[in-house]
Description:
Elements: H1 7-34, H2 39-47, H3 66-77, H4 81-101, H5 104-116, E1 120-124, E2 140-144, E3 149-160, E4 167-178, E5 184-192, E6 198-200, E7 214-225, E8 229-230, H6 236-272, E9 274-275, E10 278-279, H7 284-312, H8 318-342, H9 353-361, H10 371-381
Parallel strand pairs: 1-4
Antiparallel strand pairs: 2-3, 3-7, 4-5, 5-8, 6-7, 9-10
Helix pairs in contact: 1-3, 3-4, 3-6, 4-5, 4-6, 6-7, 6-8, 6-9, 7-8, 8-9, 8-10
The structure holds flavin-adenine dinucleotide.
Flavin-adenine dinucleotide (FAD) binds next to helix 4, strand 1, strand 3 and helix 10.
Amino acid sequence: MDHHLSPELEELRRTVEEFAHEVVAPKIGDFYERHEFPYEIVREMGRMGLFGLPFPEEYGGMGGDYLALGIALEELARVDSSVAITLEAGVSLGAMPIHLFGTEAQKEEWLPRLCSGEMLGAFGLTEPDGGSDAGATRTTARLDESTNEWVINGSKCFITNSGTDITGLVTVTAVTDRTPEGKPLISSIIVPSGTPGFTVAAPYSKVGWNASDTRELSFSDVRVPAENLLGELGRGYAQFLRILDEGRIAISALATGLAQGCVDESVKYAKERHAFGRPIGANQAIQFKIADMEMKAHTARLAWRDAASRLVSGEPFKKEAALAKLYSSTIAVDNARDATQIHGGYGFMNEYPVARMWRDSKILEIGEGTSEVQRMLIARELGLAG
Ligand SMILES: Cc1cc2nc3c(=O)[nH]c(=O)nc-3n(C[C@H](O)[C@H](O)[C@H](O)COP(=O)(O)OP(=O)(O)OC[C@H]3O[C@@H](n4cnc5c(N)ncnc54)[C@H](O)[C@@H]3O)c2cc1C
């Protein structure tokens, strides 16, 4: 892995860094406090081409790759994770399944609007009775041959970007058949927003990511055309495993950004805040804490970039993506805790970015595969499957 960014990627990094500091930072705290989706910021991210970063230009994308996406996510999350997860879910979960598994007609129909950020897509895998154990999917889709439509019934929970004013579709996983042994065969189906019978609940009240959209969805005899099947019938399980493998790299870049943001804020505060007649940063205890935070953020960056480089060059990357996700989410929580400690009482006040980072860090050990699931994947890759 070449650890130097190409001039194009360095330019992208600088552009997003500037945007995060000049546009996101001054406004996001208010959106977060009001639990409001930041449409104006997301629109601007769309205009910058961020939602199209890893997609081909023929569909309105920027012709980049997962490394480019990770760079953008890291810089956004250095300042705020709600906007970063909106981008991550819009790209990795909303548009990527259509790009990887869609027919030409599906790509032409959806990708240009998803790439421009004018529309958001979502991916509904998790259900009230099963997140880590996706094989426990209960949502069903039955093909009504008389009308050539899928009839979908069930529910999904915790789905990011699924209920905004600009959400255009949710790709849902559903059991479409069973093997003779009774094992479910899962398929992915595109459900456009507004389809009769498809209900989106009010946003959850969350601990963090408060300016991002997360909802519960229900499907009651929802009918969509047979051609809304995404990819091969019965291959939905394999498809979403691939989507999640890639998504872990994106979440890892986001977690690295949060961890680095904690360093940025802590260095600044340690120089400004005085106690016992000198800056708190003059104390070795504070210096060592920040040095350790920097070490962890740096190592997490190497891990996600290594996994992204492997993905981009077509090498196996499953284990490296799981390692990167596990490590970066763990140290994001560590750094958020330490940054809050360095800020003392102010670290517990929502007006300080580190308070937001602390609240936003925990979900990184849960979403797109918990830390336990990452350990299971790593152990399996080491040949330890039970
Ligand atoms: C804010 C937010 C946004 C999300 N966005 C999306 C989205 O857009 N789309 C989507 O589909 N999902 C989304 N999710 C769901 C998320 O991916 C799941 O919450 C996650 O995968 C864990 O599933 P679960 O909540 O059902 O926990 P469970 O699977 O019930 O796990 C509970 C605990 O048990 C542990 N556990 C489970 N099985 C084992 C085992 N075999 N060995 C050891 N430990 C085990 C888990 O690691 C965890 O600690 C989101 C969640 C949140 C909170």
